[in-house]
Amino acid sequence: MATRKKSSRRAPARQASVRTKVKAPRKYVYSFDEIRIAERAAGSADNLRGLLGGKGAHLAEMKRLGLPVPPGFVVTTEACNAFLAARDRFPRGMWDEVLSAVKALERSTGKRFGDSAKPLLVSCRSGAKFSMPGMMDTVLNIGLNDAVAEGMVRLTGDERFVYDAYRRLIQMFSTVVLELSAKPFESLLSDYRSRRGVWNDAELPAEDLKEITTGFKRIVEEEAHRPFPTDALEQLELATKAVFRSWNGKRAQDYRNAAGIAHDLGTAVNIVTMVFGNLGTDSGTGVMTTRNVTTGEDQLEGDFLVNAQGEDVVAGNRRTLPIAELGRVMPKVDKELRRISRLLEKHYREVQDIEFTIERGKLWILQTRDAKRTAKAAIRIAVDLAREKMITKAEAVLRVQPDHVDFFLHPQLEAGARASAREKGDLLAEGLNVSPGAAIGQIVFDADTAEHWAHQLKKPVILVRPETRPDDVHGMLAAQGVVTSRGGRTSHAALVARQFGIPAVVGVVDIEVNVERRQLKSASGTLLKEGDWLSIDGATGEVFKGELTTLVPDVTDPYFVELLSWADRFRELGVWANADYARDAERARRFGAEGIGLCRTEHMFFEAERLPIVQSMILARTPEERAEHLAKLLPVQRADFVGLFKAMDGLPVTIRLIDPPLHEFLPSRDELNKAVTELELRLKLNDGDASVLQRELHAKRKVLESVEALHEQNPMLGLRGVRLGILMPELVRMQMRAIAEAACECAREGVKLKPKIMIPLAATSAELKVQRALLEEEARMVLKEQGQKIPFQFGTMIEVPRAALVADRIAEFAEFFSFGTNDLTQTTFGISRDDAETGFLSEYLQKGILVRNPFATLDERGVGELMRIGVKLGRARRKNLEIGICGEHGGDPSSIDFCHRTGLDYVSCSPFRVPVARLAAAHAALANGRRKE
Ligand code: PEP
Ligand code: MG
Predict the structure, then answer these.
(1) Which end of the chain has fewer CB atoms < 10 Å from its terminal CB, N or C?
(2) What is the side-by-side strand order in the sheet with 511-514?
């Protein structure tokens, strides 16, 4: 029971009051009518949500708007944090405030808590600053005991309703507060259901529910070794503590980790007068969003149930009705709900997710919050709200997250593969299309297996469950996709999948999921076991057996195009692409790339038919021999560049000269050694034709000799980049010639050219000077031969710290810089980029020694500082020096933000990241304001 000491402020307060104002004791409880006081205490709307939690702040706000919200109050997140810090003790004074707030509730409702004549029942619900659907606890119907139940039966004349509410209280209280297993309660309910031959609990008669209530109390005594508490205030106190504690529950922590929510925010507790949706056919309950959050269309989306209480809708164990049916069943309520829906959307300037209950024909709003949505819907809604002038275009751009755009580019099932799978009868079933995108993976039936297979065994998995619960979230996050046989659009599985962009199909009633046997069965009798392949389409709701092929989605969706065009208006950074082939360049251009920031020319050497020529060129013994092989490479490289220039007609194309060490093109030293030893052995043992073996051995030894000659202990710090160009000038001369000849050919055809020649890995200005002179000479020769005038720009990559530190000198010979942050990160940290992720780096990340992977998100303090220096020095020497980035960081939103702040001209990233980068660059501009000139 609540026996907290009265707060006793000590004498010094009086002393202090002489000189300063007495500091009011902290207020931990606010009634829904006290929003103004709470606003003053919090200081801002954002802080108000922090203090009262999203749910509490919105309930109070709705009260202020005059909407039908049941009376209630909020215990603040500060109380929660104080409670958790004091190891599960309420802060001083808090409980007294709760008792006064209960008294006030009694006054305003005319009912009394724990009183059988005029019973007041309340719910105790969690509500953090950021919504974490289903991750924390809630207890409904607090205030019921045997006497109150009998009193309510007398008042309502509805024994079924009362005992349904009572058994729910015991059930929820037991699992949430007493932390008992849900199983014995569920199995008792299911015994009664099967005895009556009914599918859902709502069909059980009053006498059964009464017996079940007694049975539940017995289970509590047996399992918890204590009776179910009959005192209403004790129920409330224990429930409040449990809700506070649930902030630190595993599933809540997992969710916060995944959603990037801080762990120190705490949850508020909302104590709200119960209203009942299970009082007959003029009552009901539902959840809906003010627009369709799957497609973004401007129509209500959601489900409701007649004669049901809150969790029935989301639990998925009763077949819900679509919200469009409400008008038919309860036309007046429907009209009112639509009015409120518009009002709330306008008020919050955002699509809302609303929970409501209808008690004997009266509509009550129990919650409103910003609705979670699919990526597709996020984009359409943002565009529509801006067109409707509810928000500005800048706000619309800010409301779409880079992840939404990224998701938009997710693969889809290929139409042909889909059609033939249908024909073959591989379409197992269709369910609700709640989170778009195609997912292919091996079936797993529980969250732990999903996580294990995905993370440890590196298998793509599809999590298949009858329904999901909050403690399945870690498995959902590990899975490629999720399928549930039950549940609706607002089911847990649907909400979570949508938020995290996991393709999902729910409510697939035609498949029977047997978790115990680890198998699923379709209506037509197909049996699939754990490990079998499944392909799902979260946009259509189809579930196929087997591995279907996927394809890149259509990026011509008009809302997507429009939103990105708005983003382009706000961003100041250019967005270029890293592309090696004409086809990549074409795609990049379709996605909005404004240039090629990096063409890795050596990638062209790796093509199967070219590699032998490259190898012969490297192994050549004489300059003449080498020249012969280079001459063979020239036309193929030229053709590549022609393709690239044509694809990017009118836009800059940055061609990076060969970078990797030559041994990368040759067979591995270990394998050659092994082959030589084997051949020697076979010769000794006379195993095979000696002359053939001799010839083979000779050839292998020759290759091995060259490989040995090129061998370096640290090749990434060795003969590569500009060093290679200096030591093997004929190689880069050939590349320059290929570029120049391609440019001449294109110019003759009328292609507009902006070719940029990029020299990799320079550390000194002397290297650049020498290399550039050589390249310019070759270019001049070609232009003269061809009688053309094409301006080539020469620039360099800044990939080693020294280059950044002497950028002023480097800029003497470079007309542009591009930060190669893959190498710059490697050389700044001294961590091998090839081994990093498989080595100690992951351990560092797990232990928090490094907060982020510096190869994914730019390390601002270190690598970023070098970049700042490089930009400053470079521009000091050459005012109009063009500066970009072409490491992987060029497609990472937070690194893009840094590039904006550092005054880069453009970011260059892989073609698929281009739309993401366009949006991220707009976000950077909108968040940071205009850049310094
Ligand atoms: C870099 O180092 O960032 C870069 C783009 O070059 P590469 O990845 O080819 O070494
Ligand atoms: Mg590099």
Answers:
(1) C
(2) 511-514, 519-522, 527-529
Q: Which of 600, 759, 800, 885 maximizes ligand 1 atoms within 8 Å of its Cβ, making it the mutation to test the pocket?
A: 600
The per-residue DSSP string of 527-562 comes to: EEETT-EEEEETTTTEEEES---EEPPPTT-HHHHH
Q: Which among 492, 889, 900, 923 is annotated as catalytic?
A: 492
pLDDT band at 554; cut points 50, 70, 90: low
CB 722 within 8 Å of CB 767:
yes
Angle at 83 between CA 78 and CA 87, to 5 degrees: 150
Strands of 26-121, DSSP E = 29-31, 72-75, 112-113, 119-120
Q: φ and ψ at 445, to 5 degrees? A: -110, 0
716 CA to middle of ligand 2, Å? 10
Statement: residue 22 has pLDDT above 90 = no
Instruction: Give the 3-state secondary structure of 393-411.
Output: HHHHHHHCCHHHHHHHCCC
- Rounded to whole angstroms, how far apart are CA atoms 918 and 222? 61
Q: What is the DSSP letter of 897?
A: H
Q: For the segment 576-613, what is each residue's pLDDT rounded down to a tens digit?
A: 999 988 988 998 999 999 999 999 998 888 777 888 89
Instruction: Give the integer Cα–Cα distance in Å for 230 and 164.
Output: 17
Distance in Å from the first CA to the final CA of the chain: 66
Answer whether 886 contacts ligand 1 (Cβ < 6 A): yes
Determine the average pLDDT of the residues in 81-86: 96
602 lines ligand 1 (CB under 6 A): no
3-state SS class at 292:
coil
For residue 443, give every residue at least 6 positions away whose Cβ sits within 8 Å of its Cβ, in sequence order, or none: 461, 462, 464, 520, 528, 529, 530, 531, 532, 533, 534
Atom 8 in ligand 1: which residue has the minimum CA distance?
A: 822
State which of 605, 886, 892 you would mutate to test the pocket of ligand 1, scoring each by most atoms of that ligand within 8 A of its C-beta.
Answer: 886
The DSSP result for 618-643, as a single string, is HH-SSHHHHHHHHHHHHHHHHHHHHH
Total number of residues shown for the chain = 933
For the record, the structure tokens of 134 come out as 């289903």
Dihedral-angle region of residue 360 (phi above 0 means left; psi in -120 to 50 means alpha; beta otherwise): left
Look-up: residue for tokens 């961003």? Answer: 571
148's torsion region: left (phi>0), alpha (psi -120 to 50) or beta?
alpha
Q: Is 235 in the pocket of ligand 1 (CB under 6 A)?
A: no
Catalytic residue from among 599, 744, 746, 886: 886
Main-chain dihedrals φ then ψ at residue 403, nearest 5 degrees: -60, -35
The span from the CA of 118 to the CA of 151, in Å, is: 8
**454: amino acid identity, one letter:** A
Nearest atom (ligand 1) to Cα of 826: 2
Q: Is 374 exposed, middle or buried (0-12, 13-18, 19+ CB in 10 A)?
A: buried
Of 924, 919, 888, 923, the closest CA to residue 904 belongs to 924
CA-based torsion, 280, 286, 290, 291: positive or negative: negative
| Nearest one of 794, 793, 795, 798 to 902, comparing CA atoms | 798
Residue 716 or residue 926, greater confidence: 926
923 part of the active site: no
Would residue 886 show up in a list of annotated catalytic residues for this protein?
yes
Judge if the beta carbon of residue 54 lies within 6 A of ligand 1.
no
Could you read off the pLDDT of 629-671 as tens digits, one per residue? 999 999 999 999 999 999 999 999 999 999 988 888 888 888 8
pTM value surpassing 0.85: no
Mean pLDDT of 474-496: 84
